[in-house]
Amino acid sequence: VIVFTGVDDEDIGEKAIKLGAEDYISKAQANSAILSRAISYAIERHTLLTKIQQQVWLDALTELPNRSALFQYHTTQINNAQRKPLSINVVMLDLDGFKEINDDFGHQAGDDVLIAVAKRLNQNKRSADFIARLGGDEFIWVLVECNPVEKVLALLEEKLNLINQPISIIVNNKPHEVHVGASIGVTTWHGEQTPQMLINMADKAMYQSKSKGKNSISIL
After folding, report:
1. Is the dihedral of CA 23, 24, 27, 29 positive or negative?
2. How far, in whole angstroms, is CA 83 from its chain's centroid?
3. Neighbouring C-beta atoms of residue 123, cutoff 10 Å
4. Model pTM score
């Protein structure tokens, strides 16, 4: 936004900038060169600001939404659900076998695996779904309006099949194939839980899956 006005008042100009305008130009001072330059600079500043804002909400490694973006999205969906009926399922995925890859091949290999898993989680994702990296090798998948529970389980089985496929990595200039699985915990919003409470419940369900063995799913 560029404010182009006949009012020559620096105070108004400062207020316009504080309210979000990129520039303030009075008609008395303007000509085609000044206006053209102001528009070009405004576009560049806005583009740069957009990139910075996007980086704040993205996980630097996987480029999935990060924890902050997750909580913002989750809060928005809960607010929506409080105004109209809306089902919200929260899924926590914790990778099985990831520590062994880090130990055997190093942290760069572990990072490559996380990037590959993130891409697979995003593959064939519904437009309403939200997938974020919570931290480490833990991911959160928020499914909105996904009923009944059999449909949720079917989607999770599809993701498990993708995650279980071999992952190609390069270690010391040599190709290797590694495998990971996932322990999955699922919980459903019932009208009173906060985003943190839902994540805690999904985490509890995920640890139940861990106790069952690789590629298990538990629902709380």
Report:
1. negative
2. 24
3. 10
4. 0.75
CA distance 160 to 112: 18
In order, the DSSP letters of 123-163 are TT--TT-EEEEEETTEEEEEEES--SHHHHHHHHHHHHHHH
Cα(217)–Cα(156) distance, rounded to whole angstroms?
Answer: 8
Q: Measure CA 92 to chain center.
A: 13
Buried-exposed string 158-170: b where 16+ CB fall within 10 A, e elsewhere: ebbeebbeebebe
Whose CA is closest to 197, among 176, 171, 220, 169? 220
* CA 44 – CA 117 distance, rounded (Å): 34
C-alpha span between 198 and 204 (Å, rounded) = 10
C-alpha torsion 64→203→179→124, nearest 10: -40
Identity of the amino acid at 89: N
Q: Which residues contact 144 (CB under 8 A, 6 or more apart)?
A: 77, 86, 87, 88, 89, 128, 129, 130
176 has which bridge partners? 169
Distance CA 209, CA 218 (A): 5
- pLDDT, averaged per 10 consecutive residues of the chain (220 residues), comes to 81 82 82 85 81 77 92 89 86 94 93 95 86 94 86 90 93 92 93 90 94 88
For residue 191, what are the CA distances in angstroms to 71, 80, 88, 202? Answer: 17, 11, 10, 16
